[in-house]
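One chain given next:
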Amino acid sequence: MPSNLILFNKPFRVLSQFSQEGEKSTLADFIHVPEFYPAGRLDFDSEGLLLLTNQGALQHIIASPDFKMPKTYWVQVEGNISEEALDQLRQGVELKDGLTKPAQAERIEEPNIWARTPPVRHRENIPTSWISLQIREGKNRQVRRMTAAVGFPTLRLIRYAIGPYSLDNTQLGHWSYTEPTDELSKEVMNFEAQRKRKTASSNRRRSGENRQLGFQRNKIPDGEGVAERPTRTKPTRRTHRK
């Protein structure tokens, strides 16, 4: 039986959705499986790993920063990135919407990956460098804003991994079924059990409120009496002569 989790290597300039938006390419151009939807997003101008699922709880857990699934990116930046800039990324960077959480950041050699179409613009007099950056939150275009904030704008952004899932053995534009890990399956079970408890508690509270409301409707207000029923007069019994 197919799994309820799909791993997809999204190309550059593909929308992370199935619905059409102008002339832009979408997931519908690559994945033809009904009832699967992205668990989180990957920007139009970013590449790499995207997970899709047909299970609501699994989608919520993967996409939500509350469950702290780390996301690892390979980032090509403009300039020869310094150790000082990497330290800033590790400690947290002040953005317009607040301070980022500490990240794992290290310089790496250029990864052996597919060529981008179109390619990154090359400048002879400006070098580039690659870093691996792992974050556990999901601010809008966070990685690009983080590298820009430390003085090294992002030129190319590839999401390599989400938690235990990675792009290894998945070619660009291809997808495959994959199994949820035991830990992820446990998170799903706990999430669904918690949701059921909340629903049951909400139903009990609503039922109690309805009973209380019904009691108040039937309660006789202070100072009011009960209307007396008219008494029926019994018919006079006639005595019969024997």
Notes: Residues 223-229, 238-242 have pLDDT under 50 and may be disordered. The radius of gyration is 32 Å. Residues 182-218 form the longest helix (37 residues).
